[in-house]
Amino acid sequence: MPAPSTPKAAVPFRRALAAWYRKAARDLPWRRTRDPYAVLVSEFMLQQTQVSRVLDYYGPFLRRYPTIAHLARARPATVREAWDGLGYYRRAANLHRLAREVVSRHGGRLPREIEELRRLPGVGAYTAGAVATFAFERPAAAVDTNVARVLGRAFLGRDRVKGAAGTTAVARLAEALQPRRGRSAWTFNQALMELGALVCTARSPRCADCPVGGLCTWYRSRVRTRPGGGRLAGAPRPPRR
Ligand code: SF4
Fold it and tell me: Whose C-alpha lies nearest to ligand 1, atom 2?
C-alpha cells in the first residue's frame, strides 16, 4: 500500500492543536505515566466508558495489581471483583489473559511493536496504536470515535465518517498526520482525543472556540453557507485599514 500523503494543512493543524492542548488538557493520571502496563490498563478501562467513571477505578486497580506480574498471578474471580461496577467484564477477562500471556511469552514486558501488541488478547488496532504512542512515544495512529470525528470533520468535511471507505480514509489521515518525533506524536494523539472530547463533540461542536477552526473543512463549509458568513476561529484576522 502506498504511503498516505500528508495534507497541506498538517503543520499548522499540529501546531495549533499542540498549543491548545498545553493550555486546555485535563490532568489525567494515565497522562502522567509512560509505564506501558499502566497505560494499557487505562486503555482497557476507557473502552466505551467515560473518563469520570474510569477515574474511580484506575488508581485502586493499580494499587491492587501494581505490575503486570501481579495481575498475571491473580485469580480470575479477584480480577473480576476489582472491575466490579465498571461493566463490560470481558475487558477484565481479556486484560487478565493478556497479563498471563505477556509474562509467559514476553518475559513480563509488553511488546513495543504494533503487530505484536495486536496479537495479544483484547487488543485491536486502536489499543495497539494507543499503547505504542502513549507508552512508548512512537508515531502511531490511535483512532477512536473522537479522533475519527475530528479528522473526518477537519480534513474530509464530513460530519460523520461512515462505512469501510470512510474508516480507511480516516486511518490513513491519522497516519499521514503523525509527527515524526515520538514526544510530539504523544502530544498530537492526546490532543486529538482531547479536542474530540471537549470541543469537537458529536452533538454540539464548539467551532467558534476551536483551535483549528480556521483549518477545518467542515466548519468552513458551514460558515460559507450561513447568511453573512463570519470569521472562523483560528483564521487570521483581516488587516486593519
Ligand atoms: S472547527 Fe468545529 S468541526 Fe472543526 S474540528 Fe473544530 S470543533 Fe470540530
Answer: 207
Residues contacting ligand 1 via CB (< 6 Å): 150, 153-154, 199-200, 205-207, 210, 212-213, 216, 218-219
pLDDT over 50 (residue 240)? no
HEC profile of the chain: CCCCCCCCCHHHHHHHHHHHHHHHCCCCHHHCCCCHHHHHHHHHHHCCCCHHHHHHHHHHHHHHCCCHHHHHHCCHHHHHHHHCCCCCCHHHHHHHHHHHHHHHHHCCCCCCCHHHHHCCCCCCHHHHHHHHHHCCCCCCCCCCHHHHHHHHHHHHCCCCCCHHHHHHHHHHHHHHCCCCCHHHHHHHHHHHHHHHHHCCCCCCCCHHHCCCHHHCHHHHHHHHHCCCCCCCCCCCCCCCC
Q: If you measure from the C-alpha of residue 159 to the centroid of ligand 1, how many angstroms do you get, rounded to a whole number?
A: 10
Q: How confident is the model over 189-219, as pLDDT tens digits?
A: 999 999 999 999 999 999 999 999 999 999 9
43 is catalytic: yes
Q: Is the pLDDT of residue 140 over 80?
A: yes
Question: Cα(134) to centroid of ligand 1, in Å?
Answer: 24
- The ligand 1 atom nearest the CA atom of 232: 1
pLDDT at 239: 37
